[in-house]
Inverse folding.
């Protein structure tokens, strides 16, 4: 997208909306590897596309992930987040059975909580740079 914010149009609106979302692993276990993040990014892009959203940036560390999502006003952030967390938890645990041993009781990868902040005060380039600089685990 570069430095220029693209204005999107809906059936009855014109908009530029972005949300910064952070998920943490259940019990803050440090279980996420580079391979998990790579697959999680693919899952995130697919789920976002189903909601007519776009993942602008994605990164994370061993116990959390950051997403910057361009979304239309018709999308409820809570529904998008719940879908992202549910689908990614299920698919990551299927793809990486090693994750199951950490969550055999809860059967969920992510904490029930999340952070979501609209991006408007800070330039998107600053938020994108922040996410890009997150350390991916080895």
């Amino acid at each position: 997208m570069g430095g220029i914010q693209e204005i999107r149009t809906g059936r009855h609106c014109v908009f530029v909306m972005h949300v910064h979302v952070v998920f943490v692993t259940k019990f803050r276990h440090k279980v996420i590897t580079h391979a998990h993040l790579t697959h999680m990014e693919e899952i995130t892009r697919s789920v976002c596309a189903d909601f007519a959203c776009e993942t602008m940036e994605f990164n994370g560390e061993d116990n959390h992930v950051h997403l910057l999502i361009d979304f239309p006003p018709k999308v409820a952030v809570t529904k998008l987040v719940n879908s992202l967390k549910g689908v990614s938890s299920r698919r990551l645990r299927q793809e990486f059975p090693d994750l199951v041993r950490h969550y055999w009781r809860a059967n969920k990868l992510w904490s029930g909580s999340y952070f979501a902040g609209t991006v408007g005060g800070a330039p998107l380039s600053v938020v994108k740079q922040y996410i890009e600089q997150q350390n991916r685990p080895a």
Q: What stands out?
A: The chain is about 35% helix and 25% strand. The mean pLDDT is 89.
